[in-house]
Task: structure prediction
Amino acid sequence: MSLIAEASMTLRERKKRQTMKSILAAAREMLSENEYDSITTKEVAARAGIGEATLFRYVVNKKNLFLLIYEEFFNDVLQACLDEDAKDTTEHGTAQYYIDRITTMYTSLAGLYKRDPDSGYVYVRDSFSPEDFGQRGLEQGDRWHALVERVIHRGQDAGVLRPSPPRLIAQNIHAIYVHEVLATHARGRDPRTIEQRLATRISALAGTLTT
Result:
């Protein structure tokens, strides 16, 4: 928010904004110290310096609160990958170079998932819901797809990746990530192995894309 916009807010609006910031900060701190299942909304409210009833005027429930936190973490990972991509000046890399770039991005995303598999699962699942959160999740997904597309397009320009539609390839690769997250939860797989499973499947798909 710009300084001008913030200055135009009423005292009540600024107080509400600050309370929400305090709630999110408290939840982030507690998530770094404890597992999701062991955290209660009463504890989050206490750390934020408010009552639990006040907390529920800002978030619907515990799941909603931690999805907001996970959304912020996802944005952090996305921005870090965007920053790294902006620094890449490679014009004639090998096919493996571009595949490794994409795999590294998904390794970062998998690392976020492993920090809190329960929230990660709900985040992926609810990103397809018609609710406001779902729409924001789809927007995040579009930004992520665009980033992967750029890497694929550069590989195609270098003549080492097949000229298939970059967006379709990006969507197929992301579908692997979504499937692994959902399958990990549904089939009781170890969340700690998701990085290797992703790398194996991305490598297999990428093998069909090389010239």
